Automatic annotation (TrEMBL):
One of its GO terms (cellular component) is SCF ubiquitin ligase complex. GO terms for biological process: SCF-dependent proteasomal ubiquitin-dependent protein catabolic process. It holds the Pfam family zf_Tbcl_Rhp7. Residues 27-39, 49-58 have a biased composition (Basic and acidic residues). PANTHER family: PARTNER OF PAIRED, ISOFORM B-RELATED, RNI-LIKE PROTEIN. It comes from Aspergillus niger. Residues 153-166 have a biased composition (Basic residues). This is DNA repair protein Rad7.
Length: 581
């Protein structure tokens, strides 16, 4: 029996009434919903990518931010351009603004997006990368794109002129036209790939030395590359830049090379007392020692070295020592190094008059080079030169400001075998003193002369006093008359009192200086294109001409094989016989 059969007529009527009421209410609600959907299509479209669990407050906040963004877009020039051209899909302002906002917006993190490259659906993260067309990439495509960017791109630059290398070669004095020698090219190729080389093998000593020069110039001589130069059959080691070597590297040199005869370390900042102690324990037969900037060696250790190696040392060159090597150490050196023939002490800060007296006791000295930081007494200097100059073959005095014409007189009287003479940075000696030195001097013609920066330094009187100070016109002509035929290198930079007429007289037509290879006339404002042309005519073997701050030197024609360094147009291409090089 059905359920309705048991109901009374009153209950059945009540049930039907309730059913009609429910259907009527459902129809009303459906109508209202359809009405809302008609007016809120845009809102539903905006909510397409948003979370369905978004609260009313969050939705209101999002709507507010969206309204601000739309208002900002409507004020932009791009919006005005699109509206004027009608490029959008709709003419309604809101539709155009919303379209622009959708183009510029990126999906939020943790939303789903299609990869621009492979089309794969993936979850957006804060680390998702943009693709080439502005879309987002999945993790796999992002990694592949990053790997492609790391690959070296093809060089689109045209062929290089090599100008920078040419200028570097000029500063080094090389102006050889054409290709370098095969040996030089191979040596540089080895230096370019030094990190891939395990050993040099039986490389000739001269090429090994050249490799060391190139690596030191590039500052790539390290503990690893040092091992390539350690050969037990060699008796020399030249390291021109030891700044990257550690203390144990110096010990390793003396351990692997027991036959060392010649040692040359420049910028040896990590050479300490323990290295010298290790050297002395090895009982090496070193006869030529040159150290630069070895400031971590104490005076006591220096003295110990001279007591042990002094009798066998023939050449000693020390430079840039500011924390040690005082007068007492120099006295020990002069007392112990009885066979010393060559001595060079440059920029040793603690040396003074006592050191100068001690040097005068070296009876075997033939080559002397001094550059004092402290001011020394002129009488002590004259006494030292009086004792040592008769045996000297080379003499170099730099920065001795107290020396006067009496020093030049002693050199004129005592020196009979000089081949090299350097006397620079002096403002006391006069031009008459230089004339007296080179006139009727029984010494053979000098091969190397450096008289740079011997001039008056009174800036208020640039022409100098009437009695010229330093090397001037008469002294320059006397020098060239005496040493011109044998001169190979000449430096008269900053001798500003040499006149133009003196240059024209020295390099006049018909005169020849057959051996002159290097000439420095920097800071001579009287030197111009004409004077340089005379120099080229009179010096057939000239290889290097330095002319910094010669402001009248503009368009000189430089012969092939000559390196012109400086000049007003030093940046221009080097000209060789009218052709670009």
């Amino acid at each position: 029996m059905s359920v309705t059969a048991n109901k009374s007529p009153i209950d059945l009527q009540s049930f039907l009434f309730d059913l009609r009421q429910f259907e009527r209410q459902t129809a009303v609600e459906r109508q209202e919903t359809d009405h809302v959907n008609v007016h809120d299509d845009d809102d539903d479209d905006d909510d397409e990518y948003h979370n369905v669990d978004e609260s009313a407050a969050d939705k209101k906040k999002r709507k507010r931010k969206e309204a601000v963004a739309l208002a900002k877009i409507k004020k932009s020039k791009e919006f005005a351009r699109r509206k004027a051209q009608g490029t959008g899909e709709s003419d309604n302002d809101d539709d155009i603004a919303r379209e622009m906002m959708c183009e510029n917006s990126q999906p939020f993190a943790f939303q789903l997006e299609n990869c621009e490259i492979c089309g794969k659906r993936f979850t957006v993260t804060p680390y998702s990368k943009a693709g080439p067309r502005g879309g987002l990439l999945c993790a796999k495509c992002s990694k592949e794109l990053a790997d492609d960017e790391k690959k070296p791109r093809a060089n689109r630059r045209g062929p290089r002129s090599g100008r920078r290398q040419k200028q570097s070669n000029l500063l080094d004095g090389f102006a050889q036209p054409g290709a370098p020698s095969l040996a030089e090219m191979c040596t540089k190729k080895v230096a370019d790939n030094i990190n891939d080389i395990e050993e040099f093998g039986d490389l000739p000593p001269q090429l090994l030395h050249r490799l060391g020069q190139i690596l030191c110039k590039r500052r790539v001589l390290t503990s690893r590359t040092l091992n390539l130069f350690l050969r037990s059959d060699l008796n020399f080691i030249d390291i021109y830049d030891a700044a990257k070597l550690e203390t144990q590297d110096f010990e390793k040199i003396f351990a692997f090379m027991p036959n060392l005869y010649h040692v040359n370390f420049r910028f040896a900042s990590q050479m300490k007392d323990k290295v010298v102690d290790y050297l002395l324990d090895r009982d090496l037969k070193i006869k030529r020692l040159q150290l630069d900037a070895a400031n971590l060696i104490s005076d006591a250790c220096w003295q110990q070295l001279f007591r042990k190696l002094g009798p066998q040392l023939e050449s000693l060159k020390l430079s840039n020592l500011d924390s040690s090597f005082d007068d007492e150490t120099v006295e020990v050196m002069c007392r112990e190094c009885t066979a010393l023939q060559r001595l060079k002490l440059k920029q040793c800060w603690k040396m003074g008059n006592r050191s100068l007296r001690a040097i005068s006791e070296l009876v075997s000295l033939q080559h002397l080079s001094l550059n004092f930081v402290q001011e020394v007494d002129n009488e002590i200097l004259l006494n030292t030169l009086s004792k040592t100059s008769p045996r000297l073959r080379t003499l170099s005095l730099e920065g001795i400001s107290t020396a006067d014409d009496r020093l030049l007189d002693i050199i004129h009287v005592n020196c009979r075998a000089l081949t090299k003479f350097r006397f620079s940075d002096n403002a006391v000696c006069s031009d008459r003193g230089f004339v007296a030195l080179f006139t009727h001097w029984s010494n053979p013609p000098l091969e190397f002369v450096d008289l740079s920066s011997t001039r008056d330094v009174d800036n208020s009187n640039p022409d100098g006093p009437a009695d010229a100070i330093g090397l001037a016109s008469q002294g320059f002509m006397a020098l060239m008359n005496h040493s011109g035929p044998g001169l190979q290198k000449l430096n008269i930079a900053s001798c500003r009192h040499v006149s133009r007429s003196a240059f024209e007289e020295v390099f006049a037509a018909g005169k020849t200086y057959p051996n002159l290879e290097e000439l420095d006339v920097s800071f001579h404002t009287v030197v111009d294109d004409y004077v340089v042309g005379l120099i080229f005519q009179c010096c057939p073997k000239l290889q290097k001409l330095v002319a910094f701050a010669c402001f009248n030197l503009r368009d000189a024609q430089v012969p092939a094989g000559v390196a012109l360094i400086g000049g007003l147009r030093a940046q221009d291409p080097i000209v060789l016989q009218g052709h670009h090089y």
